[in-house]
Design a protein that fits this description.
The protein has about 260 residues and is of the alpha+beta class. Helix content is about 30%, strand content about 25%. The protein is built from 8 helices and 12 strands. It has helices at about 20-25, 50-55, 100, 150-175, 215, 220-230, 230-240, 245-255; strands at about 15-20, 30, 45, 60, 70-75, 105-110, 115-120, 125-130, 135-140, 180-190, 205-210, 260-264. The radius of gyration is 21 Å and the shape is globular. The relative contact order is 0.18.
Length: about 260
């Protein structure tokens, strides 16, 4: 990303700043952290290497805009992540998307361009101005060199950036061959027979796209060969298989005394 207006900032980030040893020599990152920053987010971006682990826990869909970015669905209602509890902890055993794990770090270029540098969201509660006296790890050592904390963050950011470029090519191919179609999911909650409670209203989730399986299987041989060579066929299969994850969301979103059923 580049320095832009706040409205163009990526999800979660409010005030990203480039880390410079001259200016941020005493800054650091608190060791204690939670995922409250993601508690109000129902979808997050996904990169190619995450399709396999993410497909075991979440439905994978595609954004309805021109980017067709792959997304993992974390909730059935806008503004609610069903995988973050009241203590800010991610549900035990569930895969935590890389986009979430990367925060509060992000690669960023300065006004003159050039290679991406490490930036951090200064608005994050984990970022401290003075490491001294805090349970925190400094970004720079006494000589102004990046500490292992900064080095690990930059390595992760760079790896994620490369994966994000790969996923752009995949999404572009899906659009080019008209493989994406609009879809919606209707969730109907039913009260148990022995319950006197009225079932809650149904939930309808829309505004996303999926791969049309029939169109995918009908791809010309040369296009199918390209998808196979690029590893995109595997991503499509994992995406389609991940639709079983809607049931997990249904169960997580239903009140304790209410059973739920989902119909696509």
């Amino acid at each position: 990303m580049t320095s832009t207006a706040a409205s163009a900032l990526p999800l979660f980030y409010r005030n990203p700043m480039l880390l410079r040893s001259q200016e941020h020599g005493t800054f650091g990152l608190r060791r204690a952290h939670d995922f409250r920053f993601a508690a109000d987010t129902a979808v997050v971006p996904l990169v190619a290497s995450e399709f396999a682990p993410a497909s075991r826990h979440y439905p994978i869909v595609f954004a309805p805009d021109a980017t067709a970015t792959p997304l993992v669905v974390l909730g059935v209602a806008a503004g609610r992540n069903l995988f973050v509890d009241g203590e800010g902890q991610w549900r035990a055993g569930a895969y935590v998307p890389g986009y979430v794990r990367r925060y509060p770090f992000v690669p960023m270029t300065n006004e003159n361009g050039g290679a991406p540098m490490l930036a951090v969201d200064s608005a994050s509660p984990r970022v401290v101005n003075q490491v001294s006296g805090e349970e925190a790890d400094a970004f720079f050592d006494a000589d102004g060199k990046p500490t292992p904390t900064s080095q690990a963050a930059m390595a992760f950011c760079e790896s994620y950036r490369i994966e994000a470029l790969r996923i752009v090519a995949f999404a572009k191919a899906l659009l080019e061959h008209k493989l994406l179609v609009d879809r919606s999911v209707r969730i109907n909650y039913h009260a148990p027979k022995d319950s006197t409670e009225a079932p809650p209203a149904e939930a309808v989730i829309n505004g996303f796209r999926m791969v049309d399986e029939a169109a995918f299987r009908a791809l010309p041989a040369d296009v199918a060969a390209t998808f196979h060579a690029e590893g995109w066929s595997d991503l499509v299969v994992l995406h389609l298989a991940s639709q079983l994850g809607w049931q997990t969301l249904v169960e997580a979103s239903a009140p304790k005394a209410v059973k739920a059923a989902a119909a696509a």
